[in-house]
Amino acid sequence: MANSDDQITLKNIASHSKEYGFIYPSSEIYDGLGATYDYGPYGVELKNNIKEYWWKAMVRMNENIVGIDAAIFMHPTTWKASGHVDAFNDPLIDNKDSKKRYRADVLIEEQMAKIEAKIDKEVQKAAKRFGDSFDEAQFVSTNERVLKYKGQIEEIENRMKSAIEGGDLAALKQLIVDLEIADPISGSRNWTDVRQFNLMFSTELGSTADGAEKIYLRPETAQGIFVNYLNVQKTSRMKPPFGIAQIGKAFRNEIIARQFIFRMREFEQMEMQFFIKPGTEMDWYEHWKQKRIKWHKALGLGEDNYRFHDHLNLAHYANAACDIEFNFPMGFKELEGIHSRTDFDLGAHEKFSGKKLKFFDTATNESYTPYVLETSIGLDRMFLAVMSSSYTEETLEDGSSRTVLKIPPVLAPVKVAVLPLLNKDGLPEKAEEIMSAVKLDFNAQYDAKDAIGKRYRRQDAIGTPYCVTVDHQTLEDNTVTIRERDSMEQQRVSVDELIATLEDKVSLKKLLRSI
Ligand code: ATP
């Protein structure tokens, strides 16, 4: 991780994000609205750059993937067919003393994570003890303590799985009681019963006098793709395997929403549904797992910050599923999901709409409902992954300190700052001339206020990878210095080569070519 040794917390990220115009609490002058956030001037640039990287990697780089932009409102039967009306529920539990509400399954998962952490500790201790001769695989499969912890996890997992699958809320509560799980805030074990809570927001279409219809704000973008499957397949002359990609808002009335932009009630998803011939799904599942992890790792946020987490409790419609987890400040958590959804969605829409959503393969004279392989990533979670792995507090050689966002240059909101060393002697005029040229190619910022060191710090704090400084020598030989954000090293280049030099450093093309 690019962070300094000190533990960076979500609080650090949230306050930096607010102070420097990345993210503000929504409607803050009215004290905000729970788990809803607004992106500021630098936030929107970073978000757009992430979207562009995803969109181009999906739609431009794959001739068999096309994009759509479906409406947020959909016919209410969509959500009956998809199962969201009946089953998009979270089991919630309240603590009677703290009055805090939790997801029962999350409380139990956190308990399992604590046991996992004990296993990790044992492994670390043993690795230290045995040195180079340490065989981790053998240790975890034979060490008594590790085996005991593994057994505990398995038992909890089995009990949770059968309670959730059987819709047995009393058994879920009993598990919390048996594990002696306490409220993480108050330490109290005084719990209510577990209840189901539907996560969809509803509203009304049309005026009430005319008989309004209850509709929902979409809780995922995927259904907009499924209901358009046939339209897109026909109009873009695609045949399986082909994909449809979409970026858009989704809404969930989340019970726990205490982790900044990790869990929001209004958020954005970048989803791709890949339509394939039944029977080929396991190959495509592997294919997209590899493709997506490569997309992530190419950004350079740290190879060790990612891991796959296979779903043991598969949803009833899935035959394989995993998450790409990222090492957020609060630990490894889901960033993206990769799901093999079989023909569940298209099949359900066929049933509810009465329309055939099949593909007729002229080569084999067969007609089939395609299977679907889905990749689904939260744009805001991706934003948090970038911010949290980039945020660094450094002590410099002269004893001073700086806060720097080491955002991958290709994603940085501002690519270059143009700074006249002094605000006189013809330097501002020359700098403005350079600014006029670079702003056509890059998001650039002109800054002539305060001492140069202070201006560098301001750019460090918003993650600008390059500062171009115009000094007296510039007027003599038409050269400027480029200061690199992370190393703080300076290089002199001719103004004529400036755009090409910068382009090479922040090139999205180069990144796309590497994946
Ligand atoms: P979680 O288990 O964290 O609630 P999920 O498994 O319900 O997530 P999916 O339905 O698979 O999530 O959604 C796909 C992606 O959308 C997730 O990997 C995540 O990045 C993002 N996402 C889901 N819910 C939220 C939310 N409330 N806020 C921000 N991003 C979200």
- How big is the Rg? 26 Å
Helix content: 25-40%
At CATH level 3, the topology of the largest domain is: BirA Bifunctional Protein, domain 2
Structural class: alpha+beta
CATH level-four homologous superfamily name of the largest domain: Bira Bifunctional Protein, Domain 2
What gap, in angstroms, lies between the N and C termini?
A: 21 Å
Principal-axes shape call: globular
Count of distinct structural domains? 3
- Level-2 CATH architecture of the largest domain: 2-Layer Sandwich
User: Main sheet?
Assistant: 7 strands, mixed
Provide the spatial order of strands within the biggest beta sheet.
3-9-10-16-13-12-11
Ligands in the structure?
Answer: adenosine-5'-triphosphate
Query: Using DSSP, what is the number of strands?
Result: 23
| Residues in β-strands, percent | 15-25%
Classified by CATH, the class of the largest domain is Alpha Beta
Low-confidence stretches: 1-5
Mean pLDDT: 94
Number of distinct helices: 18
